[in-house]
Amino acid sequence: MRSFVPKSGSALLCALLALACAGNAHARVTERAKQKAAAEARRAGIQQQQQALQKEIDRTESAKDDASDALAESESAISDANRALHDLKQEQLDTNAKLQSLADEQERLAKTIETQKQQLTKLLRQHYVAGNEDRIKLLLSGDNPNRINRDLQMMAYVSKARAKLLESLRANLAQVEANRDKVQEAKDELEEIEQDKRDAKSKLEQEKGRRATLLASLSTKLASQRKQASKLEQDDKRLAGMVDQLTKIIRQQELAAAAERKRQEALAAARAKAEAEAKAAALARAKAERERLAQQGKPGAKPLPEPEPPKVVEEKPAPVKSEPAPNILPPVPDGAFASLRGKLAAPIDGKIEARFGSKRPEGGPAWQGMFIKAPEGAEVRATGPGRVVHAAWMRGYGNMIIIDHGGAYLSIYGYNQSLLKREGDMVKAGEPIATAGNTGGVEVSGLFFSLLYKGKPFDPQTWVHF
Hints:
The protein is of the alpha+beta class. Helices cover about 55% and strands about 15% of the residues.
């Protein structure tokens, strides 16, 4: 018995394995780059809406010499750089996990391919040892018919097994090549992430230095303005105006969403009605045809089968004929936030320096929220589930986030060093949304926190579990 594989079998295996070694040297545009560009395009509309809202607030301002305005660009840039670093860290973790998964899959495929190669080698050896007889020679051999039949069946089995094994091997080799491309793309994405991280760190250090210089030059004016009751009143008025505008936008979006749901329900009802009418008409026609054939008395006439319901062409939803809805997504369902009274998560770990309704040392209006002292960079968390409707720098409050919790409830987080979320993002209770700071011209690092119902602030003390 020969114990070697025929040259034709070896050549076949080599040809198949060569498919797995072909490299892909052309330059790639990574999937990450495509998704990044698409995300930026989607956010452009929301940012335009936010900028328009900010301009509307600014047009009502009487004082244009606020010292903190000089810090706006720098503090916003610091926030953007920190958010980019936060996002890139998560991207890096996800990409490394993807690489590990691909490595595991590649190892599994390698073992499967090795097993299939051994099976194919065995089949080719058996075919060669059998004398490489074909079916015609076997039929004309004059041998025992039972043996001929048995051998023919064995040859058919071997042929099918070999074809199936070859097809499976080709598929696995193609999968190896596809995985190799995915691994290369993941590595390219990691290189992009590393470069983006370097850029973000460089930008962060640059803006930190710029802000420190501005703070040193503005320290006297900032300290003076912090003591002006009129400025504090204007800050409160500005925030109230922002909240009023956001409340209107949210309400607009709710009405638009309700109208769209009603329109979709009407379309679905119309389609169901049309399908039912078409089916009833088809059944009526079939019944009439059977009655006609029965009256003719044709021998052997068989009743027509019940027809299948006709296919109804899917109607594409027509565009809503109303004013375009604002580019802020609808809030979470009503009632979810109110049910959490007394159970809301604390927005930050720190010392409460000022409570709702307490007097300010410098005079002016009472606190319309709470000030919680915390170190710069401390984690700020969403107090409840909701959707971010504002994430930008605002005079008097620095980098500020506002979350819509549904049911006309809002929560506000101000003075942040960095904002980790953008307008439109959904957040969970306790999820990090920002880092504490002293932006907007305040002196001490911490968090301004406020809860509102129908645009009016109320005491968070009985709602939040501090």
